[in-house]
Amino acid sequence: MKISSVNVSSFADFEDHEQVLECIDKKSGLHAYIAIHNRNLGPALGGCRIWPYESCDEAITDVLRLSRGMTYKSAMAELPLGGGKAVLIADPKTEKTREMLVAMGDFVDSLNGAYITAEDSGTSVEDLEIIGSRTKHVAGVNRKQLRDGSEVSGDPSPSTAYGVFVGVKASVKHQYGSEDLHGLKVAVKGVGNVGKRLAGYLVDAGARVFVADIYAPAVDEICKSLKVKPVDLSQIHKLEVDVFAPCALGGFINEETIPEIKASVIAGAANNQLAHPGIGELLVKAGKLYAPDYVINAGGIIDIFYERSVYDHNKVTRHIERIGDTLGEIFAMAKNTGQPTHIIADKIAEARFGKTPNCKNVA
Ligand code: NAD
User: How far is CA 77 from CA 65, 101, 291, 297, in A?
Assistant: First the structure.
C-alpha cells in the first residue's frame, strides 16, 4: 500500500487545496485520490465517489472540484466542517470489490481524522460499512430514528433529496411567484439515489415529472413505482418544462447545452453542475435561474453532521428547510446586483470559511 502527496498546482481546478493524496494498493487493485480542500471550519468531510474515470487527470480534476464544493457546501449550511472528497477509479457496477473498500478504509484511517468519508455516487451504506470496518472516520452508516420511532439507514440521500425538493420550491417561488408545484413540469436527469426520491416528492406535490438516466434499469424501476414519463436521454434537457433538475454527474451546464435548455429554472442535486465559473454569466443572460449546486444539495451533509452528534429528526428537517431561505436570499441578492447566483453564494461561503488555509499537511 502506498499513499503519497500529488502536486496539483498545475491543474486549472487547483484552488489552495491543502493536500491531494494518491492511494495505491496493488493487491486489491485500488487506485484512489483523496483531496482535502480546506479545514478552517472543521475536519474535511465528503463522500467517496467510485467512477470509471478514463484518466488520472480526469479523476484528479473531479476530486479537486468536489472537495472544494464540500468546503463551500458546509460553510453555506452553517456547519463546523471543512471540505474533502475521495474518488476511486473503478466501475462501481462491475469492478468494485470488498478488498478495494478495505484498502480504502486503511488509507482513510492513516489520515487520523483529517478526512472523514461518506457515500457518494458509486458507494452504498454497505460499502461504507466495509470501509468503516477499518476506520472510525466514516459517516452515513449509523441507523437513525425518525419522529414516529421507526428506523432508517445511514444513507444521506433521502435528506439530500428532501433538501433539493425544498430548493426547487424556493427557486420556483422566485421565478414564477408561487411555490405551488401543481401542474408544473419538471425534467429530472439521473434517477439514482437522489433523483428517484426527488421525483417522488415532486409527483406527490402535483408536478408532472419527466425522467432519463444513462442506466436503463434505473428508469424501468422508477416507472414501475411512480407516475413519471421516461424520455430519451438526449432529449431530457431540451424538453419544454418549467424546471430542469440535473441529478446525475457534473459539468452538464455548458455553452452547448444552455441554448438547448428550455426550462427557466435549473435546480438539481448534481455536484459541479456548471462546466466552468463563466457559465453563470451566460445563465443570467439567458434569463435562467440557477440554484447553486452546493447550496441546494446540502441536505445530506446536514444529515451526516447530526448523525455524528445527536440525531434529532425534527432538528435535521428544520435545518434542511433553511436551504429554501438561503436560496431565497441568494436569489434576491443576485437580482439586486445582476451577479450570477453562484458568485453570490461563493462570496458568502468564502467570508465564512476564510479562503486561506491554515492547516498543515496530513501525510
Ligand atoms: P447515484 O449514483 O445513485 O445516481 C446517479 C444516477 O445518474 C445513476 O442512476 C446514473 O446511472 C445516472 N447517470 C450517470 N451519468 C449520467 C448521464 N451522463 N446521464 C444520465 N444519467 C446519468 O448518485 P446520487 O447519490 O443519486 O447522486 C447524484 C448526484 O448528486 C451526484 O452528482 C452526487 O455527487 C450529488 N449529490 C449526492 C448526494 C447524496 O446524498 N447522495 C449529496 C450531494 C450531492
Answer: 18, 29, 14, 10
